[in-house]
């Protein structure tokens, strides 16, 4: 199976700042490829390079087995994208916008009713003739997606597609992505700074920080239940650690954090562990199980310190 | 020799005859003294005679000049009115004007008007000078002959006209009159308000009516300048057009046809 | 490319600000015509002051042709501002709105986008000038009639026969189009560097205002740099309203005093346009779109 996107040793420098640092990854056909990182980790720059908005300083990007720099038009003809805010021409109507972009997207020429059908996919058929400046953020987002899909592209790139949406909107986008992938067989690259969002849709994941790749892999492997962390807070942490070290759980102990004891275990073992804590008469204040990936992300986003690598 | 000299001789002769009869009565020296006295008296008489002669001669030619002008005017007066067609060329250092067709209207005694048949006309002020008849229309001037000259191979008489009216705009006009054909070939007019003009006329088909085929009108102009800030000039870097200090302008009118004495409505002169 | 041009034109003419320029031109031309109709003779007397000292001038001096000339003289200094309003917004405005990145992820090359946008701006500019020509020339001709035109230059007066004027206006508007396209290409070029349209609009206007002042100031020290300012060349349309004379100082109908100088000015403007357009393409192709 030939990859849809193959990125090799990609770097981008803005003057002294290294935004993307020697990044390599591959996206296979049919993937929902989750692209994770903090704000400012280099996600957006990487995605813009995939769409030829930003010129790489070094490295190679191949999409549909063509070099992006020599086959830009052919590649973009089969790609659709929503980058950050889905900005369209505010002084035009929804229909005028989609019509305008459909003309230059390189797909088949669409009739007015076909365009209206496209708007119906994202639930905007009733507002087709309204100027976009009257739209809510969610409506604009949906219009942006409709425009990205108007020429029926094989590859869809969505940069932070749920930014600024309400929970219903987020759910709608999520369902749309799943449908595109499962029913229509599209390849989707979706970036986010929220693991919880990606977790629900991606089958493959790339996590970057400070422009560098941290991990790339299948979601099923990365979300291995064996990688569950339990964060424990007790009345007397020192005593609790002593008790745990003497128990069979001692091998699960991780380096303690401020005010919390951390243990790693399989998700299935949690009920047993919970019972045994009670039996050891450890006075528990809080008990928080969390997947290690999620934990890592939480650490990244709540402190600037790089706390620990996820996989050990 | 001149008649004055022969006169003088006859006087001397008469005296010598008288002197001969008196020679027996008086001494030679006395006679000589008397003769000298007589000579002086005769000289005075002679000067008076000479003066009278000159003055009467001038008066005679001044009368001639007036008569000549009357004859010229009489010829011009054959024309009661006319409408002429022709073309006009303007040559002024600071004006670039195309040659244009004009219509000229005239009616005795002094109605005169030049009209560009199409477009804007720029004419030197004091347009009366374009017309001989109106120049001569007033009787109240003194004509003084000042000699003769030759213009384009034609012998002309120079006559200066001095208006009798102290308040007249025209101070002095010099006419160069072709006596043989009763045509004014050239004029030179000095005015109080509009400087000095010069007109040169060439005659052809309409010489019988005293109407020229071509008139060249030369005049002095004042300076012309608009600040560049007002005009927002596009600098073409051309050398200052001609010599702007030469403030002599020229207008040349070539007549192609005259319609004479067919009546001209007064409305044309408004 | 044609598709892209159509889209750019569609965008330009869907925006209200496009019509502000047309309204402004209509208003300005109307005001000047109204003023001249009411009080034009005072103006003419003032301009003819020196000439009237020695000459009596007759005819319809304040005719449509002269009025058009006066309007062009006054307006062509200000029209660049209206053109800038559109041209300097072409890239920066889209960057600001965020539509630029969407546009660039479509299968069109950046060169095509630049050319389409520039062509669209050119069409807008030419339409604006044509609109102005109709109002300033034809409407003035209807209101003030026609006659010969007296072009009162600083050092001399040129009388143009009424039959010898129209083609000069055609040329003058053609030249004005070049001048305005120079402005458009400058604004367009500057718009590539910014992510909001205010910056390039103000920058373009400032450059034009400063250059125009330097071009019109008659101060010797500035005269040296004048030929290097495109604003000096922009008034080259006036060159069409001066004629050659023959040996007898008679104006030659259908001639132009200094064709070479006018063509040179036009050439300099064309070089500016091409230069700025090429620079725009080069810069835009290299640009990282981060907006």
TrEMBL record, chain A:
Give the matching SUPFAM superfamilies.
P-loop containing nucleoside triphosphate hydrolases
Keywords, alphabetical? ATP-binding, Nucleotide-binding, Transport
> What are the residue boundaries of the ABC transporter domain, all occurrences included?
5-235
Q: Check the record and name the InterPro entries matching this protein.
A: AAA+_ATPase, ABC_transporter-like_ATP-bd, ABC_transporter-like_CS, P-loop_NTPase
Q: Cross-referenced PROSITE patterns, in alphabetical order? A: ABC_TRANSPORTER_1, ABC_TRANSPORTER_2
* Family matches, as Pfam families: ABC_tran
Give a GO molecular function annotation for the protein.
ATP binding
Gene3D superfamilies, alphabetized: P-loop containing nucleotide triphosphate hydrolases
Tell me the SMART domains matching this sequence.
AAA (SM00382)
Q: Which family does it belong to?
A: Belongs to the ABC transporter superfamily.
User: What is the name of this protein?
Assistant: ABC transporter ATP-binding protein
The organism is Segetibacter aerophilus
TrEMBL record, chain C:
Q: Which Pfam families match?
A: ABC2_membrane_2
Alphabetical UniProt keywords: Membrane, Transmembrane, Transmembrane helix
**Is Metal-binding one of the keywords?**
no
The keyword DNA repair is annotated on this UniProt entry: no
Q: Molecular function terms in GO for this entry?
A: ABC-type transporter activity
What are the record's GO terms for cellular component? plasma membrane
Query: Where are its TM segments located?
Result: 20-44, 64-92, 113-146, 166-194, 201-222, 262-284
Q: What is this protein called?
A: ABC transporter permease
Species this chain originates from = Segetibacter aerophilus
């Amino acid at each position: 199976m030939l990859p849809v996107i193959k990125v090799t040793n990609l770097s981008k420098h803005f003057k002294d700042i290294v935004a993307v640092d020697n990044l390599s990854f591959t996206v296979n056909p049919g993937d929902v490829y989750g692209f994770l990182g903090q704000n400012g980790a280099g996600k957006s720059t990487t995605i813009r390079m995939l769409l030829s908005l930003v010129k790489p300083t070094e490295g190679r990007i191949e999409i549909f087995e063509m070099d992006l720099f020599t086959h830009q038009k052919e590649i973009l003809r089969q790609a659709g994208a929503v980058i950050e805010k889905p900005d369209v021409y505010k002084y035009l109507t929804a229909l005028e916008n989609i019509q305008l972009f459909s003309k230059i997207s390189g797909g088949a020429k669409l009739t007015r009713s076909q365009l209206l059908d496209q708007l119906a996919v994202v639930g905007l058929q009733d507002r087709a003739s309204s100027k976009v400046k009257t739209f809510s953020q969610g409506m604009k987002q949906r219009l942006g997606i409709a425009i990205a899909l108007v020429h029926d592209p094989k590859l869809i790139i969505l940069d932070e597609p749920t930014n600024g949406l309400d929970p219903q909107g987020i759910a709608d986008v999520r369902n749309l992505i799943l449908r595109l992938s499962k029913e229509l067989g599209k390849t989707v690259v979706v970036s986010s700074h929220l693991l919880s969002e990606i977790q629900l849709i991606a089958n493959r994941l790339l996590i970057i920080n400070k422009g560098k790749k941290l991990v790339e892999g299948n979601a099923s492997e990365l979300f291995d239940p064996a990688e569950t962390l339990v964060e424990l807070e007790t009345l007397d942490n020192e005593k609790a650690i002593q008790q745990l070290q003497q128990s069979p759980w001692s091998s699960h102990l991780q380096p303690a954090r401020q005010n919390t004891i951390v243990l790693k275990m399989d998700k299935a073992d949690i009920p047993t562990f919970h019972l045994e804590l009670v039996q050891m008469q450890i006075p528990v204040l809080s008990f928080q199980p969390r997947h290690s990936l999620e934990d890592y992300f939480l650490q990244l986003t709540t402190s600037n310190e790089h706390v620990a690598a996820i996989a050990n | 020799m001149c008649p004055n000299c022969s006169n003088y001789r006859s006087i001397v002769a008469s005296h010598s005859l008288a002197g001969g009869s008196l020679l027996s009565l008086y001494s030679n020296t006395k006679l000589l003294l008397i003769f000298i006295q007589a000579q002086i008296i005769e000289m005075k008489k002679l000067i008076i005679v000479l003066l009278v002669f000159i003055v009467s001669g001038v008066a005679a030619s001044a009368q001639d000049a007036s008569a000549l002008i009357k004859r010229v005017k009489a010829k011009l007066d054959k024309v009661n009115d006319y409408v002429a067609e022709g073309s006009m060329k303007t040559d002024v250092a600071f004006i670039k004007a195309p040659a244009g067709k004009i219509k000229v209207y005239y009616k005795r005694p002094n109605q005169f008007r030049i009209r560009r048949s199409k477009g804007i006309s720029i004419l030197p002020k004091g347009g009366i000078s374009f017309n001989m008849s109106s120049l001569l229309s007033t009787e109240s001037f003194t004509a003084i002959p000042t000699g003769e000259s030759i213009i384009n191979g034609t012998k002309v008489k120079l006559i200066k006209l001095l208006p009798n009216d102290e308040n007249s705009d025209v101070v002095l006009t010099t006419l160069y009159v072709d006596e043989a054909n009763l045509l004014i070939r050239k004029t030179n007019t000095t005015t109080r308000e509009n400087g000095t003009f010069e007109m040169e006329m060439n005659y052809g088909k309409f010489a019988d009516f005293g109407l020229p085929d071509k008139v060249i009108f030369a005049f002095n102009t004042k300076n012309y300048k608009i600040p560049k800030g007002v005009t927002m000039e596009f600098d073409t870097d051309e050398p200052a057009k001609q010599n702007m200090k030469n403030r002599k302008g020229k207008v040349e009118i070539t007549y192609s046809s005259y319609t004479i004495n067919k009546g001209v409505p007064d409305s044309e002169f408004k | 490319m044609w598709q892209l041009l159509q889209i750019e034109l569609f965008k330009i003419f869907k925006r209200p600000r496009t019509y502000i320029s047309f309204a402004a031109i209509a208003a300005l031309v109307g005001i000047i015509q109204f003023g001249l109709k009411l009080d034009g003779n005072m103006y003419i007397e003032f301009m003819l002051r020196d000439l009237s000292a020695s000459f009596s001038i007759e005819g319809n001096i304040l005719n449509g042709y002269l009025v058009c000339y006066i309007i062009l003289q006054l307006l062509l200094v200000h029209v660049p501002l209206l053109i800038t309003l559109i041209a300097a917004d072409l890239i920066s405005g889209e960057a600001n709105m965020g539509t630029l990145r969407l546009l660039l992820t479509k299968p069109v090359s950046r060169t095509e986008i630049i050319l389409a946008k520039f062509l669209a701006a050119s069409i807008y500019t030419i339409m604006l000038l044509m609109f102005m020509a109709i109002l300033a020339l034809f409407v003035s001709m209807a209101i003030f009639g026609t006659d010969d035109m007296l072009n009162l230059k600083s050092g001399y007066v040129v009388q143009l026969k009424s039959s010898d004027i129209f083609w000069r206006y055609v040329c003058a508007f053609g030249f004005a189009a070049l001048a305005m396209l120079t402005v458009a290409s400058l604004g367009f070029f500057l718009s590539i560097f910014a992510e909001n349209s205010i910056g390039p609009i103000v920058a373009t206007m400032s450059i034009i205002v400063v250059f125009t002042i330097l071009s019109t100031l008659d101060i010797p020290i500035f005269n040296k740099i004048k030929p290097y300012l495109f604003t000096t060349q922009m008034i080259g349309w006036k060159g069409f309203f001066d004629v050659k004379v023959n040996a007898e100082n008679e104006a030659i109908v259908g001639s132009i005093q200094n064709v070479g100088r006018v063509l040179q000015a036009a050439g300099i403007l064309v070089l500016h346009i091409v230069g700025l357009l090429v620079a725009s393409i080069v810069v835009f192709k290299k640009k990282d779109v981060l907006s």
